[in-house]
Design a protein that fits this description.
The chain is of the alpha+beta class and 288 residues long. Among the domains are: 123-223 and 258-275, no CATH class; 225-256, no CATH class. It is built from 8 helices and 8 strands, in the order αααααααββαββββββ. Residues 74-89 have a biased composition (Polar residues). Residues 33-122 are annotated as: Disordered. Residues 51-69 have a biased composition (Basic and acidic residues).
């Protein structure tokens, strides 16, 4: 009984000492434990990327992203696309020098020039001929018939043999103006209809083919006639062509300066052809 009473206090003291011992031991925190774990992992800056776990599906999706917008920017306005892939020097040269074949150039027309749009005329010649044609046809329209011509001071020359007749304004034949659509020296009338179908510009007296202006090269052809016999009483009345510079009685020889016609229609031989070529398809160019 005495032993029991002695052992119980001893046991209590031993238990208290054990508890005190445990309480003095250092505790390891959760944060310290986590830090240890992090420090034990390999550094992402030094680790081989191939050993780092990663999602291959995500990489595949990124590799398959659309390059359409890039292609659109590089090919804007080019009309064709070029690959952005790397090329060797010879491939690059071949790309730069690739051929855009314009096709075989159209052959130039042959024969006399009979159109304002003929490519053998320069742009300046085409423009000059076009402007002259438009202004001259406007003047022709303002004198549509013989009545209007007579009222405007024109008289008939009386050259009816070809079906065409010239009407001349003597004041305009020596007024110092040349190729002036507001002062055309002569108009041409269709004898059967009495309608005005053309105009004829004439240079000043004393001028010859060396003085003709070059408006549109071969298209705007000037011409001269052999010496003409005109009536002694009617200055512009045609009688005949002179023979050896000799005329019938009552007429006198006269050399008419170079002339150029402009027609209200488009004859096969061009709008500036002479009366002998109007309405025909024989378009041998006049001397000019």
């Amino acid at each position: 009984m005495r032993l029991s009473r002695f052992l119980f206090p001893v046991a209590l003291l031993a238990a208290a000492a054990l508890i005190a011992t445990f309480m003095r031991l250092p505790l390891t925190s959760t944060a310290e434990s986590s830090a240890s774990t992090v420090e034990s992992l390999p550094s992402p800056t030094t680790q081989d990327p191939e050993t780092i776990p990663h999602d291959h599906a995500a990489v595949a999706d990124d590799a398959a992203h659309d390059h359409t917008s890039v292609a659109d920017v590089s090919s804007t306005g080019s009309g064709h696309q070029h690959s952005n892939a790397s090329m060797s020097g010879s491939e690059a040269a071949a790309t730069v020098e690739h051929a855009h074949d314009p096709g075989t150039p159209a052959a130039l027309p042959s024969g006399p020039i009979v159109s304002v749009s003929d490519p053998r005329l320069s742009p300046a010649q085409q423009d000059a001929a076009s402007r002259l044609l438009i202004s001259s046809r406007s003047s022709i329209a303002s004198f549509p018939n013989t009545t209007a011509l007579a009222a405007g001071g024109y008289v008939s020359v009386g050259d009816n043999s070809s079906g065409l007749q010239h009407w001349v304004n003597d004041a305009y034949m020596h007024d110092g103006r040349e190729i002036d659509p507001t002062h055309i020296e002569s108009f041409v009338v269709n004898v059967s209809s009495g309608r005005t179908v053309g105009a004829m510009y004439t240079l000043e007296p004393g001028k010859n083919m060396a003085n003709v202006p070059n408006i549109a090269g071969e298209l705007t052809t000037w011409h001269v006639h052999q010496t003409i016999c005109f009536s002694n009483t009617q200055i512009w009345r045609f009688v005949s062509f002179a023979t050896n510079n000799s005329c019938p009685n009552g007429s006198s020889p006269r050399v008419v300066p170079p002339m150029m016609h402009v027609w209200s229609d488009d004859p096969p031989c061009g709008p500036f052809v002479g009366t002998e070529g109007h309405g025909t398809t024989s378009c041998a160019a006049h001397a000019h």
